[in-house]
Amino acid sequence: MTRGPLAIVGAGPTGALLAILLERRGLATTLYDARPDPRGHAGDAGRSINLALADRGLHALEQAGVLPALADALMPMRGRMIHARDGGQSLQPYGQRAREVIYSVSRHRLNQVLLEVAAAEGATLEFNHRLEDLDFTKGTARLRHVGRARDGAEAPERTVALQPLLAADGAGSVARRRMAALGLIAAREVDLAHGYKELTVPSGIGGAPLLAADALHIWPRGNFMLIALPNADGSFTATLFLANQGAPRFAALDTPGAIEDFLQREFPDACALMPDRLREFETHPTGFLGTVYADGWHADQVCLLGDAAHAIVPFHGQGMNCCFEDCMTFAACLDRDGALDDPQWPRVFAAFFAERKANTDAIAAMAIDNYLEMRERVADPRFMLQQTLALELERRHPGRFIPRYAMVMFHHEIPYATAQARGAVQARLLADLTDGIGDLGGVDFDLARSVIERDLPLIDVAGQA
Ligand SMILES: Cc1cc2nc3c(=O)[nH]c(=O)nc-3n(C[C@H](O)[C@H](O)[C@H](O)COP(=O)(O)OP(=O)(O)OC[C@H]3O[C@@H](n4cnc5c(N)ncnc54)[C@H](O)[C@@H]3O)c2cc1C
Asked: Residue 61: CB within 6 Å of ligand 1?
């Protein structure tokens, strides 16, 4: 049995940032991942898959000192560019301040940088090692080497002590499923009825972007949508979100003719920018989406973090941001426990769960809400009026009225649960104020003031003055 450093399973964004934070506290870590080492190569068959990084993630990366190494990979996006059926485009800004932008970043590059920093801090990295089982009676984890050893022999299993083991093994977490099967925690995986497919908008001549490079592009089509995020090389990664049942649905797009008819009918302007769409559609996997709800994240010496504990649907662009926030909270709980030479892990785990659970439940719900907003509401004139009014109320009542999107994306100092609760008050107010009116001229700002001053206490947040 291997004894020694504490084990982190999963070297994705959560595991890698966690290793950095723990190493900095003098705790030796070994990161195990089932995949090969992503450092030193271009990534998934040259595909450029990106993620939206917002204030919560940026703040964590800044605190961990990782941000400077990523600076050249961050593509600012200042709003949503809405693509109507007739090809018209309109920008809906994310906020009214210069700092209210989000960033597109390559998933592969981000993971490489985090792992480089983790290794430089002293973490041991063990790739091609898959967690297979946890034995709480013996206090051990069983890992198997993926593939064969260099001499061609079947690689041996490895047993690692739970002293402790931090499981950051993603949405399909083996650790979570094992803990749930043993009755140590209760966990549910709730599938979304929609899946996704990634496509590419390549760059034009000389690497010039073919869409506005400072926006997140959305083709909202009611029950489905296409989005595209910019990459540093001038290309865009487009993602089609579509139902698994009903019409249209992925399963019905099963011939070149059906795929082409659908894409040309719904997104003719995007088709003109995606010459390889048919091959990509046929060869790229259809991804599943879902939410993980766990009523406990820890048992004995094992604790779940990141997607393993609370995977969410991607429509708020917050999954990874939330995972990074987990890492910061975990480190803060460890610091508060005050015994870095002999941490009382069960106590640290309990404090971490108590602090995070309400917040991860809140972002899970808001991420589901945001799907409806992106695929349908962004094209609705009343929604657009409410967005404009929200920005006006924010201008008139700084620190009291902050649009929910801004609370989630631009204010790491506002917990998700607070954003959700204040967002519900604001949504009711916006609905009341825009009932039966066509523009801001008809808004009863006195009523707005009285509700805001009564129901939305002043909060101290960055950049609101
Ligand atoms: C389509 C899509 C778009 C998204 N867009 C965004 C976005 O714009 N912004 C955002 O913030 N978030 C986004 N997310 C969410 C984000 O990808 C996740 O929240 C984030 O990757 C979770 O990080 P993690 O390290 O917890 O898990 P993962 O990224 O899943 O990493 C888990 C790691 O564990 C390893 N592993 C798994 N099982 C085992 C095992 N048994 N043994 C050993 N290793 C194992 C895997 O190889 C992997 O390296 C998106 C997700 C999807 C699906």
From this structure: no
